[in-house]
UniProtKB/TrEMBL annotation:
Annotated ranges, domain Sigma-54 factor interaction: 128-356
Any single Pfam family the record assigns to this protein: Sigma54_activat
Chain ranges of the Response regulatory domain: 5-119
Keyword 4Fe-4S: no
PANTHER family noted in UniProt: TRANSCRIPTIONAL REGULATORY PROTEIN (PTHR32071), TRANSCRIPTIONAL REGULATORY PROTEIN FLGR (PTHR32071:SF21)
Family annotation (PROSITE patterns): RESPONSE_REGULATORY (PS50110), SIGMA54_INTERACT_1 (PS00675), SIGMA54_INTERACT_2 (PS00676), SIGMA54_INTERACT_3 (PS00688), SIGMA54_INTERACT_4 (PS50045)
Name of this chain's protein: Two-component system response regulator FlrC
Superkingdom in the source lineage: Bacteria
Species of provenance: Natronospira proteinivora
Native organism taxonomy: Bacteria, Pseudomonadati, Pseudomonadota, Gammaproteobacteria, Natronospirales
InterPro entries assigned to the protein according to its UniProt record, in alphabetical order: AAA+_ATPase, AAA_lid_NorR, CheY-like_superfamily, Homeodomain-like_sf, HTH_Fis, P-loop_NTPase, Sig_transdc_resp-reg_receiver, Sigma_54_int
Length: 466
């Protein structure tokens, strides 16, 4: 999505015009209002990325506007413009929850710096698409917490965008210039995870031919994302807790401790508190990670995002390859009617399939094939059980990747076997793994790899451990 507009609220029309012109000259989208009431109306019509407001206005002044914003959009950045010499006003504004203040008269550069520093920039660096009010609230929250050093725990179903939000938090934090290092705790074999996280010295174990810094060290000065933290075994959880408490790490086989300056963001698609109750996750680690929990709602709870996300994903996949097709009205309706158990990852798969099936300039509903396994059988408009009917493939010149047919067929077979095994064992990973003749860890690993490859496992499966 494009950047959210900056809302300028000022009753002095000359000053308002000057501010608006200054911001527009920098390429920013701007909305204007002459007092608090008009500003609230404008915010009701469309989301904004920041408010710059005067204090003294009528009928509704800046203080009342700020109070309204804090109760309706708690995380929206608000900069108050106060008259020179009224320091008390500035203090009062900050107490009322203003993000910052500008003392009048101010230079154009000060204004621009202030706006650049605080405004929400969802489109920057592939940031989250957020159009639904629920997503905007989440984005505001993420922007607010980004500014702090707090450990963040992002919880949400698989495919809701936890990693996207983790990056957003990093990119909007004072550590943005530092590294962002991600590690998927479920995708690394158990016996390797400790070495990967904490690093090792040469000879620490068979095969350690050279010293290697761990992910914690690699993230120095930046952010470390511990993805799927619930999948870490209890012994390693204890070591992780120690590292987080002491803020220092010791490489495997090493003797010196290395001080850490790393902000940690963790994600989970399981109810971590339930894992604590079940004795699978350490309570002390849970509380250490849960300093600032952010829940990412499933896509079905933010319907206003579905079409903007579909367009964003289409743009992403078409860039440099083909002109962007339109979504027909019936396909828009079908997208909105689906419940998206696999969330945005499922939407991405649907979009990619549609682009293959509809090489023209419009995507019709029959090109939309929803995941077969998500709701048992089919939710495809064409009622084909979710599978792609060969008759619907474009005859020639279609954008079908070649050279991966065997690979895809094997992945497909593996996926089906895993789903079948999980189904027959009522979702128990332990028993499904036994049925497949592999360890539960390997099953978890394969499931994570499938997810990374964009394959969504049915939501009702794969959540139980025993
Ligand atoms: N708000 C968003 N805007 C744009 N793309 C998004 C958004 N949310 C998710 N995506 C895309 O959807 C896919 C899944 O997102 P992501 O990997 O962040 O989900 P997740 O919740 O971390 O999933 P999992 O729990 O399975 O690891 C990615 O391709 C990501 O780029």
């Amino acid at each position: 999505m494009s950047d959210l507009p900056v809302l300028v609220v000022e009753d002095d029309s000359d000053l308002r015009e000057a501010i608006v012109d200054t911001l527009m000259a920098r390429g920013l989208e701007v909305l204007e209002a002459a007092d608090g009431e008009v500003a609230i109306e404008a915010m009701g019509r469309q989301p904004v990325g920041m408010v710059v407001t005067d204090v003294q206005m009528s009928p509704m002044d800046g203080r009342a506007l700020l109070a309204h914003i804090r109760s309706h959009h708690p995380e929206l950045p608000v900069v108050m413009m106060t008259a020179y010499g009224t320091v008390e006003r500035a203090v009062e504004a900050m107490r009322g929850g203003a993000t910052d203040y500008l003392m009048k008269p101010f230079e154009a550069e000060n204004l621009v710096d202030m706006v650049d520093k605080h405004r929400l920039k969802p489109s920057a660096m592939g940031g989250p698409v957020a159009e639904d009010p629920a997503s905007l609230r989440m984005l505001e929250l993420a922007a607010r917490v980004a500014d702090s050093e707090a450990t963040v725990l992002l919880c949400g179903e698989s495919g809701t965008g936890k990693e996207v939000y983790a990056r957003f938090i990093h990119e909007h934090s004072p550590r943005a210039k530092g590294p962002f290092v991600a590690i998927n705790c479920a995708a690394i074999p158990e016996n390797m995870l400790e070495a990967v996280l904490f690093g090792y010295e040469k000879g620490a174990f068979t095969g350690a031919q050279a010293a290697h810094p761990g992910k914690f060290e690699q993230a120095q000065g930046g952010t470390l994302l511990l993805d799927e933290i619930s999948e870490m075994d209890l012994a390693l959880q204890a070591k992780l807790l120690r590292v987080l408490q002491e803020r220092e790490v010791e490489r495997l086989g090493g003797r010196k401790t290395i001080s850490l300056d790393v902000r940690v963001v963790a994600t989970t698609n399981r109810d971590l508190l339930a894992s604590v109750r079940a004795g699978e996750f350490r309570e002390d680690l849970y509380y250490r990670l849960n300093v600032f929990p952010v829940r990412l709602p499933p896509l079905r709870e933010r319907p206003g995002d579905i079409v903007p996300l579909a367009k964003h994903l289409m743009e992403h996949h078409c860039r440099g390859k083909r002109p962007l097709p339109r979504l027909s009205e019936d396909s828009t309706r079908a997208l909105q009617a689906h419940t998206w158990p696999g969330n945005i990852r499922e939407l991405d798969n649907v979009v990619q399939r549609a682009l293959i099936l509809a090489p023209g300039d419009e995507i019709q509903a029959q090109a939309l094939h929803f995941e077969a396994a998500t709701d048992g059988l089919s939710s495809t408009p064409g009622g084909n059980g979710g599978g792609v009917d060969a008759a619907q493939l474009p005859s020639a010149g279609g954008d079908i990747p070649d050279g991966h047919a065997l690979d895809d067929a094997l992945k497909d077979r593996e996926y089906r076997l895993i789903v079948e095994a999980l189904r027959s064992e009522g979702g128990s990973r332990k028993h499904a793994a036994a049925r497949l003749g592999i360890s539960p860890r390997t099953l978890r690993y394969k499931m994570a790899r499938l997810r990374d490859a964009g394959v969504e496992l049915p939501r009702d499966l794969g959540a139980k451990l025993a």
